[in-house]
Amino acid sequence: MNFTARTRTFALLGNPVSHSLSPRMQNAAFHAAGIDAVYVALRCDADAVVPTMHLLTRAGGGGNVTVPHKRVAADCAPAATFDAGTGAINTFAASDAGLIVANTDIEAVAGSVAAMGNPDGAWLILGTGGSARSAAAAAVAGGHAVAVSSRDAARAEAFANWCDALGAVVVSPAQATVAINATPLGLADDDGLPCHPDALPGVRAVLDLTYRTHGTTAWCSAWRERGVRALDGREPLLLQGAAAWRHWFPGCIPPLDVMRAALSDDVA
Questions:
Q1: pLDDT tens across 70-96, in order?
Q2: Which of 86, 132, 239, 250 is deepest in the core (most CB within 10 A)?
Q3: 217, 225 contact by CB (below 8 A)
Q4: Does 107-232 carry CATH code 3.30.160.40?
C-alpha cells in the first residue's frame, strides 16, 4: 500500500480489537476498488470514542464501532442517524452535513440468519448490549418473536422490556428456533459456552456474533456436532462491513468476493 497526504483513514473503535479481521477485510476491499484509504483497529476507552469519531470524519474518513462501545457511539450528536431506534451504532461516516451514524448490524444479522434458511419461530438472544439490540431489531423486522437470556436477571428484565417497547413479542427461550450469541463469550481461549446446546432442543439455526482468527468458535462447533446449522461472526462481519460502504462511499459497490476471501482461514 502507498499512503499519501490524501489517504483517508477509517478505524475500528473498541476494546478489545486486536483479534479483529476488519482491517484485513476492508484494506483488501479498498485496494480492489482503487480507493485511497486505509483501515486500522484502534483500542480505545469509552470517553475517547466520540472525539475519535469526530476527528476521523472531519478528515474525510470514518469507521466502525464494536464492543463495548456501540451504545456510547450513539451519543455523538450526529447530523443524521440511521439506527432503527436501537440506540446502538456500529458505523460512522463523513457527509456534507457532518457526522452521520448508522447501524448496519441489523441487516447483517438478518442476512446471516437468512443464509441458514431463516427458520420460522422465535429468536433467542443471549446478551443485552448493543449487538443484542441489533439482533432484536432484526427479529422484529422479520416478524419473529424474541426470547431473552442473560446471566444478570435485572439486565434480562430490562432488555425484555426494551424489546417489548420496540414492538417484539417476548416469549420463553424454550420456544426459540434460532439462537444468537450477542455476548463477548467466545473471544478468549478459555471462555465457556454462552449456552449449552442441550438446553435448547428446539433450535435449528445458530449465529455466534463472535469469531476466532482461525477456525470457528467452540459454540458453533458444539452445535454443528449435533447437526444444527451454525455460523460464526465472520458472516455478519462481512455483511455489516459491506453495508458500511453505503455511508462511506455512496454509489460505490463493495467487492464482496474480495472481502469474503480476506476473511478466509487460508489468508495468512
A1: 999 999 989 999 999 999 999 999 999
A2: 132
A3: no
A4: no
Domain ranges, ordered by start, for the chain: 8-103+237-262, 107-232
Is this prediction's pTM over 0.90? yes
Q: Which CATH class is domain 8-103+237-262?
A: alpha beta
Choosing from 8, 24, 69, 70, the catalytic residue is 70
Query: Which residues lie closer than 8 Å to 123 by C-beta, 6 or more apart?
Result: 113, 135, 136, 138, 139, 144, 145, 146, 147, 176, 177, 178, 179, 180
**86 has catalytic annotation:** no
What is the dihedral angle through the alpha carbons of 216, 222, 225, 230, rounded to the nearest 10 degrees? -60
